[in-house]
Recover the amino acids of this structure.
C-alpha cells in the first residue's frame, strides 16, 4: 500500500484491492490501532463481545449493511454475500485517514452472530477510534433490529393492537422504546408514549434517530413538536403536576400511588423487557396492571415444556434454587434454543447475588408457558401466547 | 364444621423471613386450618424478602395449598398496612388474623369501626410483641415520633379487633398495664407447636450429657445476649465452662453496635471455642439443634431473655422433647408443665444462669413437658376458628337517613380552583347538603367577578354566599360560615381542593356508624393551578394520616386537616377555630377535640384532592410566623398537661422544633436563604465593632450614606482604630 496514495484517495482510491478476511486465521498486530468484536465463545482474540441476535443471518447482514451506509464518510469496498462478509473504508474527517472495517455474519441456532473488525491503515495508535466505531456500529445495529418488524414480533403485534388506543411503552429496554412508540403512532394509536423511572440522556434525539432509521421522520418530528421532552430533567415530582407540559417519554415510578393520575389515559401497555432478568416478575406484572391499561403486550422468555428433564409447562424455577444437574440441563436446553447463557459457566449450580453482580443481565427465572400465564393471572391479566421464537414468547393479555 | 375463608395478615412469615417466632406460629396455624378444610390465604403486604424472591414463595406455598399473596408494598409500615386494607376490602374472608406488631391490621379495625368494610368478617388480633414493651426490655430509648405512632397503631388495632388472642396470660396483663383497652373478647391461647406427634408419647426424662451450649434467639439485649455471655464468663473463671458455645440467631443490635462487634469484647477472655450461626431457616434450626455436638453429647439450647411473651424457641423444644434452659420470666412459665419448672427454668440473671448451667453440665440436661399438650392446643385453635364461623348476630346497618350537612368553605382571591371546588360539591352523592361560602375579603377583579356570577347559582340552590369586607383569616371566616350554616354536621373545605363525589356520604356514614364527633380522611395531593386529576390514587403519596393519637398529635399533625366533618355540638363545645393569623388552626382544633374527650376518627380512604401551590407559601413565611404557628399547635397538649410538667413537655416539643429549624428542614426549608451581605455580618460577633462596620458597609451599598456614617462611628467607638472601619470612613469622607 502506498501511504501517500491512501491518504490522498477518496473512498476506495489508493487502497489495496479488498479480499475476504479469514477471521479464523486472524492475528492482531501489536500496535494499538485495531478493535475486534466477536461472539461469546468464539476463539478469536476479541477485545469486545458481540451479542447473539434473534434475527436470521440474512436479516442481520442486511441490517449491518444498512447501518454502514448510514455512517459518515464510509464506503463499501466489497461484499461477499455467500460468506455473509463485507468490507468498508471509513475516512477521518480532518486527515482523511482510512480505517478498514470487516464484518462477517454467522448462523447460529435460533439466530445469528457477528464478527466485526476495525483497523487503521496508518499510524501506530488509533487513540481508541476503532473501539469507539465498533461500539457505535453495534449499538446502531441493535437499535435497528429492535425497530424493524421482522425480528420483533412485539412491533408487529403492536401495529395490530394500537389503532385508536392510548399506548404506553415501558422504557427500561431503552433502545427499543422509541421504535415501538413510533410503531404505535404509525399504526394509528390515539397516543403513544414511553415510560421509565429514568430517561435516557437525550430521548428526543433517540426518537428522531429511530424515525430516520424507520423512515418515519415526519411522524417523529410531529410527535416531538407535540410532546418534546426537552433537556431539563430536574428531580422527579412527588405529586402529579396539573400544569406539566405533555412529554412523549414520561419519567415516573411504576409504584407511584397516584400513577394513573400522572399518566392519564392508557389502554395498552407494551413491555419489551422480559421477566427472566427481573428479581420479582410478579411485582412487575402487577405494576403494569397498575398503569390502568386494560391490554398488555409482553415479550419474555418462556421455555417449551420438556426442553429439559423435569421442565413442565407450569415450571417456575429461580436461578437461586438450581442444583448442578438442573443447571446443566437448562444450559443445554437454552443452547438448543439458540439462547446460550454465560451465567451457567459462572454458576454451574445455584446463582447467587454475588455471582450475578459479575454478569450482564443474568436470567433469574426459567418458566414454562403455563407458569407465565399463571403469573399474569395473579396480577389480573388473562393472557395467551401469540408467538414463539426460540426461548421467547410474545403474550397478549387483557385485564381479567 | 363449615369450611371458612381465613386470612393471616403478617409481616413475618417463614420463607421471606428466616426464622421469626411469630411467623413460625402463623405457619403452624395456616397448616392446621388448611388440614381442617379451611381455605387459607397468607397476606404478606411487604416487598421485602430476606431470602428468595416473593414470586418464588408464592409458588412454593401454592404447592402445599396455601395461598401466599405478596403485595410488594414498600415504605413505612402504616403504608404497608394500608395496602393490605385496600386488598382485603375487595375480598370476602370469614376471619382475618393479624398480629399487633407494627400495626399491620390497624386500617382494618379503623375501617370496621367506621362501617367501611369487614362487617361480616371476624378480626382477630394476636398479641405477640408490642413495640414499647420490646423497647422497655431492650434498654432502648424512644427517638422518633414514628415510634409513638407505631405504638398507637398497635394498641388501636388490638382495641378495635373482635377478638384478641394472646399466647400468654402475662402479655394480656402487660398490655392492660400499658393502658391498652382490650375488647370484651380477649383470651389466652398458646401458640401452635410445630406439626408432629405429641411429645408426651415419646417423652424421655433421662438426663443427657451436654456437648455444646447454644444461645438460642436473636442476638440482642432483650434476648439476654449480655446475660448469657456474663454467665459463660463466670463459668470460664470457675473452670466449669462448656466445651463449646454457639450463638444461633439473627445478628441484631446491642446498644450502639451490632451484636458481632459487641461479641468481640464480651468474649475476649474466653478460652472455649465459639461461633455464630445466623443463616438458618426455621426448619434448619431444628435440625441443627437435634444434631449431636462435635465430640458427642447434645446441643443444649439456652434462652437467656430478660423478658418474653411466649417464645417459639421454648415451644419447639417442648414439642420436640428436647432439653433446654429458659428464664422464668414473662409468659415462659405458662408454657412449661409446673412439675418440670425446676428442671428447665431458672431465675432471670447471669448468676442464676451460670449456676443452672453448671448444674446441667455436671448432671446432664433433661427435657420438660408442655403445660398444655400440643393436641389440646390444636383443638383449642380449631374450636376458636369454628366459633368465628358463627359470629354473634350483628345489628343491621343503622338507617341514618340523610341529615343535612353544611359545607363551610372559605375563600380568598380564588377563581378557577374555587369554581372546581364548587363543582365538586355540586357532584356530591349525599342528597341533603348546603354550601356556605364565605369570601374572606377578595379584592381582585377576577375573584370578584366569579363571586358575582355565583350569586344567582347559589340562590337557585338555596345556598349561602357571604362576602366579607375585610380579610380576617380562616378562624374568623369559618366562624362566619358556621353561624350561617343550618346543618347538624359541618364539613369544612378549602377553596382550592376538589372533593370526590362520595366524600360527604362516606364521612357522614362513618361518623354516624362510629358515633364520632370529628372525622378526617386521606387526600390525594397534586401540584399547580390546573384541573385536579380525575384518576384516583390508590394511596396518599407522602403523608398518611393515622388519626387520634394525643401523643403523636403533640408532635405532628397526622390527625387530619381542615377538610374535616364535625358534629355541630362538638364545634360549639370547642368554640370553633381560634382566629389568630398563623397556621395550624386545624391541628390545634383536632388536638383540642381529642383532649376534650370527643371521638376523632381518621378514615383510610382518599376523599378529596389537595392542591399544592409551588412556592406560594413562602411569601408569608418568617421564623416568627413559624414560631407562632407551632406555639398555637402546642397549646392543647400543654393545656392537658399538669402545670408543673408543662415546661418539661415544652422542652420535649420545642427542642425537636429547634433542631428542625437549625437543619432548615420541613417548613423552615421554605424560608428564604440569607443574602450574601447578611451572611457576612452574621459571621461576625454581634456585639463587636467588626459586625457594626460590616452593617455600615451594607447601609452604604443600599445608598444610606448618613446611616453608614453613624454606624461607622459606633463601630469605631466599639473597636477604636478598626482598619476596615477607618478605611470605609475615609472613603465616605472622600465620596
Amino acid at each position: 500500500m502506498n501511504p501517500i496514495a491512501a491518504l490522498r484517495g477518496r473512498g476506495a482510491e489508493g487502497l489495496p484491492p479488498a479480499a475476504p478476511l479469514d477471521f479464523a486465521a486472524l492475528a492482531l498486530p501489536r500496535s494499538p490501532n485495531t478493535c475486534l468484536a466477536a461472539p461469546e465463545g468464539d476463539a478469536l482474540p476479541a477485545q469486545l463481545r458481540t451479542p447473539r441476535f434473534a434475527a436470521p443471518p440474512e436479516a442481520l447482514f442486511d441490517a449491518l449493511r444498512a447501518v454502514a451506509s448510514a455512517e459518515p464518510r464510509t464506503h463499501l469496498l466489497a461484499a461477499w454475500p455467500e460468506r455473509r462478509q463485507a468490507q468498508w473504508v471509513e475516512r477521518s474527517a480532518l486527515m482523511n485517514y482510512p480505517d478498514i472495517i470487516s464484518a462477517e455474519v454467522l448462523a447460529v441456532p435460533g439466530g445469528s452472530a457477528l464478527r466485526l473488525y476495525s483497523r487503521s491503515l496508518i499510524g501506530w495508535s488509533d487513540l481508541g477510534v476503532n473501539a469507539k466505531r465498533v461500539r457505535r456500529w453495534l449499538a446502531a445495529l441493535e437499535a435497528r433490529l429492535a425497530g424493524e418488524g421482522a425480528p420483533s414480533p412485539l412491533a408487529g403485534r403492536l401495529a395490530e393492537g394500537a389503532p385508536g388506543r392510548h399506548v404506553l411503552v415501558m422504557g427500561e429496554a431503552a433502545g427499543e422504546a422509541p421504535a415501538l412508540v413510533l410503531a404505535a403512532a404509525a399504526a394509528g394509536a390515539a397516543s403513544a408514549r414511553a415510560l421509565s423511572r429514568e430517561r435516557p440522556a437525550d430521548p428526543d434525539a433517540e426518537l428522531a434517530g429511530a424515525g430516520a432509521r424507520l423512515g418515519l421522520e415526519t411522524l417523529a418530528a410531529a410527535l416531538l413538536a407535540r410532546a418534546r421532552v426537552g433537556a431539563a430533567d430536574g428531580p422527579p415530582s412527588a405529586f402529579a403536576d396539573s400544569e406539566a407540559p405533555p412529554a412523549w417519554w414520561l419519567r415516573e415510578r411504576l409504584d407511584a400511588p397516584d400513577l394513573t393520575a400522572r399518566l392519564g389515559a392508557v389502554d395498552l401497555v407494551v413491555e419489551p423487557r422480559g421477566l427472566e432478568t427481573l428479581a420479582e416478575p410478579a411485582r412487575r406484572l402487577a405494576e403494569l396492571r397498575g398503569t390502568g391499561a386494560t391490554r398488555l403486550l409482553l415479550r419474555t422468555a418462556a421455555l417449551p415444556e420438556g426442553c429439559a428433564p423435569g421442565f413442565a409447562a407450569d415450571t417456575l424455577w429461580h436461578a437461586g434454587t438450581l442444583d448442578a444437574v438442573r443447571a446443566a440441563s437448562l444450559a443445554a436446553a437454552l443452547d438448543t434454543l439458540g439462547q446460550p447463557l454465560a451465567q451457567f459457566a459462572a454458576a454451574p449450580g445455584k446463582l447467587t447475588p454475588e455471582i450475578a453482580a459479575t454478569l450482564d443481565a443474568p436470567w433469574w427465572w426459567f418458566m414454562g408457558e403455563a407458569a407465565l400465564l399463571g403469573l399474569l393471572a395473579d396480577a389480573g391479566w388473562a393472557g395467551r401466547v401469540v408467538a414463539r421464537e426460540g426461548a421467547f414468547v410474545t403474550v397478549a393479555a387483557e385485564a381479567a | 364444621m363449615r369450611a371458612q375463608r381465613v386470612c393471616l395478615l403478617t409481616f413475618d412469615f417463614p420463607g421471606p423471613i428466616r426464622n421469626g417466632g411469630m411467623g413460625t406460629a402463623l405457619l403452624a396455624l395456616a397448616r392446621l386450618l388448611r388440614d381442617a378444610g379451611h381455605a387459607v390465604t397468607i397476606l404478606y403486604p411487604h416487598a421485602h424478602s430476606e431470602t428468595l424472591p416473593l414470586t418464588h414463595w408464592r409458588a412454593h406455598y401454592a404447592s402445599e395449598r396455601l395461598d401466599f399473596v405478596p403485595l410488594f408494598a414498600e415504605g413505612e409500615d402504616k403504608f404497608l398496612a394500608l395496602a393490605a386494607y385496600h386488598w382485603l376490602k375487595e375480598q370476602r374472608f370469614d376471619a382475618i388474623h393479624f398480629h399487633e406488631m407494627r400495626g399491620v391490621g390497624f386500617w382494618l379495625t379503623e375501617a370496621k369501626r367506621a362501617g367501611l368494610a369487614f362487617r361480616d368478617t371476624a378480626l382477630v388480633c394476636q398479641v405477640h410483641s408490642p413495640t414499647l414493651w420490646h423497647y422497655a426490655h431492650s434498654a432502648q430509648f424512644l427517638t422518633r415520633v414514628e415510634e409513638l405512632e407505631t405504638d398507637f397503631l398497635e394498641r388501636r388495632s388490638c382495641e378495635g379487633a373482635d377478638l384478641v388472642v394472646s399466647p400468654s396470660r402475662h402479655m394480656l396483663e402487660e398490655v392492660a398495664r400499658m393502658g391498652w383497652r382490650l375488647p370484651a373478647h380477649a383470651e389466652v391461647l398458646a401458640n401452635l407447636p410445630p406439626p408432629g406427634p405429641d411429645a408426651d408419647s415419646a417423652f424421655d426424662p433421662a438426663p443427657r450429657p451436654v456437648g455444646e451450649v447454644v444461645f438460642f434467639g436473636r442476638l440482642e439485649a432483650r434476648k439476654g445476649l449480655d446475660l448469657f455471655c456474663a454467665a459463660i464468663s463466670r463459668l470460664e473463671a470457675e473452670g466449669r465452662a462448656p466445651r463449646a458455645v454457639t450463638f444461633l440467631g439473627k445478628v441484631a443490635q446491642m446498644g450502639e453496635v451490632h451484636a458481632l462487634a459487641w461479641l468481640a469484647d464480651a468474649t475476649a477472655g474466653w478460652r472455649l471455642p465459639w461461633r455464630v450461626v445466623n443463616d438458618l431457616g426455621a426448619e434448619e434450626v431444628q435440625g441443627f439443634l437435634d444434631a449431636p455436638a462435635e465430640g458427642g453429647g447434645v446441643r443444649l439450647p439456652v434462652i437467656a431473655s430478660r423478658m418474653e411473651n411466649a417464645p417459639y424457641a421454648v415451644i419447639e423444644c417442648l414439642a420436640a422433647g428436647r432439653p433446654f434452659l429458659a428464664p422464668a420470666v414473662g409468659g415462659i412459665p405458662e408454657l412449661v408443665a409446673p412439675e418440670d419448672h425446676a428442671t428447665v427454668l431458672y431465675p432471670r440473671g447471669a448468676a442464676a444462669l451460670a449456676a443452672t448451667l453448671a448444674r446441667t453440665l455436671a448432671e446432664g440436661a433433661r427435657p420438660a413437658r408442655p403445660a398444655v399438650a400440643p393436641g389440646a392446643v390444636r383443638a383449642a385453635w380449631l374450636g376458636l376458628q369454628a366459633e368465628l364461623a358463627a359470629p354473634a348476630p350483628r345489628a343491621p346497618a343503622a338507617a341514618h337517613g340523610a341529615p343535612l350537612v353544611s359545607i363551610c368553605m372559605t375563600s380568598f382571591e380564588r377563581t378557577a380552583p374555587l369554581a372546581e371546588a364548587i363543582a365538586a360539591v355540586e357532584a356530591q352523592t349525599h342528597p341533603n347538603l348546603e354550601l356556605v361560602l364565605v369570601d374572606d375579603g377578595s379584592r381582585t377583579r377576577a375573584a370578584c367577578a366569579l363571586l358575582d356570577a355565583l350569586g344567582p347559582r347559589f340562590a337557585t340552590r338555596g345556598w349561602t354566599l357571604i362576602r366579607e369586607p375585610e380579610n380576617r383569616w380562616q378562624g374568623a371566616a369559618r366562624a362566619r360560615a358556621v353561624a350561617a350554616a343550618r346543618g347538624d354536621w359541618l364539613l369544612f373545605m378549602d377553596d382550592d381542593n376538589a372533593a370526590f363525589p362520595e366524600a360527604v356520604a362516606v364521612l357522614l356514614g362513618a361518623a354516624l356508624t362510629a358515633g364520632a364527633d370529628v372525622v378526617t380522611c386521606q387526600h390525594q395531593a397534586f401540584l399547580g393551578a390546573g384541573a385536579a386529576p380525575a384518576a384516583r390514587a390508590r394511596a396518599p403519596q407522602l403523608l398518611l394520616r393515622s388519626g387520634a393519637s394525643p401523643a403523636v398529635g403533640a408532635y405532628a399533625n397526622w390527625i387530619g386537616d381542615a377538610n374535616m366533618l364535625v358534629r355541630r355540638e362538638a364545634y360549639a363545645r370547642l368554640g370553633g377555630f381560634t382566629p389568630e393569623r398563623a397556621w395550624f388552626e386545624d391541628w390545634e382544633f383536632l388536638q383540642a377535640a381529642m383532649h376534650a374527650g370527643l371521638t376523632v376518627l381518621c378514615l383510610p380512604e382518599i376523599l378529596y384532592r389537595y392542591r399544592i401551590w409551588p412556592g406560594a407559601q413562602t411569601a408569608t413565611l418568617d421564623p416568627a410566623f413559624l414560631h407562632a404557628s407551632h406555639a398555637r399547635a402546642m397549646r392543647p397538649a400543654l393545656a392537658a398537661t399538669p402545670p408543673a410538667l408543662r415546661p418539661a413537655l415544652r422542652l420535649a416539643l420545642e427542642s425537636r422544633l429547634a433542631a428542625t429549624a437549625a437543619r432548615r428542614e420541613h417548613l423552615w426549608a421554605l424560608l428564604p436563604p440569607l443574602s450574601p451581605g447578611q451572611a457576612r455580618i452574621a459571621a461576625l460577633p454581634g456585639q463587636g465593632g467588626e459586625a457594626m462596620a460590616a452593617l455600615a458597609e451594607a447601609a452604604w451599598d443600599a445608598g444610606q450614606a448618613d446611616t453608614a456614617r453613624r454606624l461607622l462611628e459606633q463601630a469605631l467607638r466599639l473597636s477604636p482604630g478598626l482598619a476596615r472601619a477607618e478605611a470605609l470612613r475615609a472613603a465616605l469622607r472622600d465620596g
User: Anything to note?
Assistant: Residues 15 and 270 of chain A are 48 Å apart (CA to CA). The interface with chain B takes residues 237-244, 255-258, 260-264, 279-283, 286, 290, 292, 316, 318, 320-321, 364-365, 371, 375, 378 of chain A (CB under 8 Å).
